[in-house]
Amino acid sequence: MTTSAPPQTSDTALASGPHSALVLYVARGLRGFGDGFFIILMPAYLSALGYGAADIGILASASLLGTAICTLAVGFIAPRHDLRRLLLSGALLMALSGIAFPIAGDNFFILTIVVFVGTINPSAGDLGVLVPLEHAMLARSAADEERTRTFARYSLIGALSVAAGSLAGAAPELLVHLGIGTIAAFKLMFYAYAALGLASAALYRLLPHARMGERTSAPLGPSRGTVYKLAALFSLDAFAGGFAVQSLVALWLFQRFDLSLSAASLFFFWTSVLSAFSYPVAAWLARRIGLVNTMVFTHIPSSVFLILAAFSPNLVLTLLLLLARAALSQMDVPTRTSYVMAVVTPPERTAAASVTAVPRSLASSVSPALAGALLTGAFSGLPLVICGALKIVYDVSLLLSFRHIKPPEEEP
What pTM was estimated for this model as a whole? Predict the structure, then answer.
């Protein structure tokens, strides 16, 4: 028996249309560009300051934990507050993060506080306080049959901007050749990240004032059970992913194969490009085999490639396997977002985006610290193996639990 999504209620409180979607796309591009070079420069900068792999893993965990708490708060207050104001606040927090990170560099305690409170993202995934707000506004602007393509465009722009940012990760080496000190070159890039936060704030000012629900409405209503079940499964996926966040994969490549910063920047550029162009493919595939099937049947092969990369004996084969993984591993991103937005009512969307994202951040905040410690062990590829194995368990569980719950566009 097929279970349909809850009825979609009218939501006239949010004036979100093509203009708003365009603003959100451009802002996503700016944030992605900043994340692209920050992911690579963060471990390189911290290593240059004398921090070890375990320290960097702890900082990655602190960043993800702080992101989770802030995202949860935003998701529950968003239905009763102006989304434009919340987006502006998040963009300003990004700017402050870029300024505070290089200032706090030599003090591990203060640095931990900065990454916990700020918007610094050690993973290529789209996490943070701005995500549930942008998702809710985009979902409101698209019809059911266009929703997945809308999120595919959003994810495509994000991934391409992360790819461009990855290339910018080689900039400190160029600055050093121009006579700027290594640490100073890193700091200039972090200040550039702050400038991107200010530019995002300027874009968000172009959005209309809007709310998803009434001031007295509950964040989650009839879809609560579905959302909590999805959140639990997404948490398993995120806990697994935390063992192979991009910053730690970069550190693993630096340590195991002595990969240079410029080579790492070029490599992560191509992983982001492959991920980017997998998003429209995911939207095309979802129209033919369904959202849940697309999430599962592209994710499992990517996990197999990751496990094989851990055992690869040389750099070339390792990079090829990781590139193959990148071409498949993110196809569940637009489909997962579209599915969550489809199976809840419109007033629940910001809370649903938050509640499904926050446990993911909490779960993923634990594993980087464990991965950092495992990287120093006899088999440094063990975090990649753990990541791939747990993700396969998640995929099978998702398929068994949600294959009968269809979004509106998949109903007969």
Answer: 0.67
